[in-house]
Structure formats: C-alpha cells, structure tokens
C-alpha cells in the first residue's frame, strides 16, 4: 500500500484511505436529503451535523475515529454552529470550496485561504497569530475574510472557520428544529406517528427549506426525541390477523 493510499492516526494505526468509510457514506446520505433547489442554487452549503450521523451510526467511537481519518485526508471541514465552543457540524471540503467560490469567484485573498491555508489548519478554529506569523496574512486580508464570512471572531486572539450567510442558515435551522419539537410537545402524550408528523410539516416553509428528514435525523441524534417501532395487530380484518408497522416518536 502506497503512502497516498493510507493515513496514520494519533495512535500510529495505519488505515486505508482509498475507500469511503461508514461516516463518509453517512455524510453523503445526509447531504442528499437537502432539497434539490438548495443543492442546485447553492443557497446554503450542505452542512452536516454530528447528531445526524449519531442517528445513523450508533457507535460514537467509530464515528470520531473515522472523522479523524477524513480530517487528516482533508475531506471534511469542521464547523461550529451558533455559539458553542466545539465542532458540532462539518461539510465535505470540496463542497465548502465550491460554495465559497460560487459566492466569491474573483477574490485572491479567498483563493489563497482555501488553497494554501485552510488545508493546513484542519480544525474549526484558528489563532490570529498563526494566520499572521505562519501564513503571513496581513490585517487587511483578515478583515476581508471576516467581512466575507469565512472567519468569525471568537475572541480578540482567535477565529472560528465559517461560511457566507451562516446567520441565515443558523436561523432556518433553529426555527425548523424548534417547530418540529413543539408539535410533539403539544400532543397529549407527547408522541406522534412519524408519518403524521411528516404530513403536518409537508407545507411548512421553514421545514421545506432544508427538508423534514434533514431535521428529523438531527433531532433524533441529539436525543431530544426518541423513536420506537411497534406492531399493532388487527384481528378479524378480512378474516386475517394483519400486522401494521407504526413508527412512533416519543419525547
């Protein structure tokens, strides 16, 4: 195996890199749930939340290990959404670059940041001194990156990696998430069939903007709601015992 086909983790384990791992496949699945108009127009970048992956792969140790591999391969860019001081989301690196260049196609400072600086950072945050001393960025370049939305001020000495119009995306994300949870909370027993919930959300713009399944994976993965499957028997129906699969959501 050549060095280009492998990666060495912090525990010196050598892993193959030429095949997608389970976490990368899950990332691409979540990305596919976004509405076509969002993907085609690049209105928002295809952000994936760690909770969405937790809902698909029920092994956090495996997920964290495979995210480490993807990060070392520069296949993902970690992000922090909102005010949390940890990485709660990420995006495929190629999608991040595509989105940024679609918004700002002719800015040398941004091209320099994407091609030469960001692949070396491999984190969701960076110190100001690193950008100035190691990567030789001038203050006017830092200001331009901030104004364009690629850097978000964390404190006087550091930044978070971000993306243009992140505020609009976060607003839509929070509104849609809250709407779904409130529907369930208002139920008498705080539970609802998944199919009924999806039907109620079908014509709600704040849900459709990112997609019902997109929100549902995030809410379930964060354990704000629990999903359980059960069978309900109906006797003497057409002289047969018919079993119907109901998916319930219990808060």
Automatic annotation (TrEMBL):
Matches recorded under InterPro entries: STK19-like
A single GO BP: positive regulation of Ras protein signal transduction
Organism superkingdom: Eukaryota
Pfam family, one: Stk19
Similarity comment: Belongs to the STK19 family.
Name by which UniProt lists this protein: Serine/threonine-protein kinase 19-like isoform X1
Organism classification: Eukaryota, Metazoa, Ecdysozoa, Arthropoda, Hexapoda
